[in-house]
Amino acid sequence: MKDTLNVLLSKLRMKQLHLLIALDDHKSLHKAAGVMSMTQSAASKALQELESMLDAPLFERSKSGMIPNQLGHCVIRYARVVTTDLTALCQDVAEIRSGRGGRLAVGAIMGAIPDCVVPALNQLHAAQPGLSIEVVEDTSARMLAQLDDGRLDLVVGRAAVAADPSKYQYRPLGDEPLVVVVGYRHAPLPRREMTLRDLSGHRWVMYPSHMPLHALLEREMDLAGLDMPDNPISTASTFVTVALLQSSDELVSLLPSAIAGPYVRHKMLRMVPVRLKSPSQTFGIVTRKGGVLSPPAEKFIALLRGQTQQGQTQTRSSPRQVKAPEKSA
């Protein structure tokens, strides 16, 4: 391993990494060479030199073009990380020199955004108004791939969904409790506790099958002895979900309580008194283990953790509410 590292440090060129990415994108040495403004023979030689450094081939030739093998996929992934980091470096240097500040790219699951991510971002923006901030909302699995590629500085989500969670640093923040909701125009619901079976006459607005909340609803339906709805409306968009629920009194859906809360307070949704049997899913701060965080990323993480600690302190110190005795008739 040490010999390979020494060879790469002394002989590896950025142009070879760019060539790998072009080959992965175009699956053709001829097309990749054109993108790189190189002759095909020069591109072939650069690839051979890189494969010689690693002492193994990186691509397989097939009818559909040049397809990266397992080692090729690994090297290409790191090539994208390196080039992305260098691009971000140049952008940050230019912005800092111009006085506009740096850049922060944050990924977050839906339930963590209102009460966790947004307050921390507001504090960070107030302290660093010149900072450029990008927020991506997606599933943890998809955002971890972007974290690996260097397109995100950190993820507020779950590391456990990764094939190898040990390659990430994970710092827990909180839970993502879920609630069942209907539109506000829905007839008032009984205050007693309901079950999913009581909603069998409703049509569900569900998440796509690749999302964890879809699997959770499947589990809840199974525990209730029910089949999954065979005519659902599927969407990953909170906006679409709320708009659909508002438009009909026959639709029902599942939302993180932090997302549903504001819509309930503004009389756009109603919470259904269904007690879910699955435990709340936890989430936290996920970063690449061994990666170097930018100052804005470190500041943002400190704000997130400070909020969590403050919330825990307030929960422990808040006095218990005692129900006032009823007046005798």
From TrEMBL:
Residues 306-329 are annotated as: Disordered. The keyword Transcription applies. Residues 306-315 have a biased composition (Low complexity). It comes from the Bacteria. PROSITE patterns: HTH_LYSR (PS50931). One of its GO terms (cellular component) is cytosol. GO terms for molecular function: DNA binding; DNA-binding transcription factor activity. Keywords: DNA-binding, Transcription, Transcription regulation. Residues 12-69 form the HTH lysR-type domain. It holds the Pfam family HTH_1. InterPro entries: HTH-type_LysR_regulators, LysR_HTH_N, LysR_subst-bd, WH-like_DNA-bd_sf, WH_DNA-bd_sf. Belongs to the LysR transcriptional regulatory family. PANTHER family: HTH-TYPE TRANSCRIPTIONAL REGULATOR YBHD, NITROGEN ASSIMILATION TRANSCRIPTIONAL ACTIVATOR-RELATED. This is LysR family transcriptional regulator. It comes from Paraburkholderia monticola. The lineage of its organism: Bacteria, Pseudomonadati, Pseudomonadota, Betaproteobacteria, Burkholderiales.
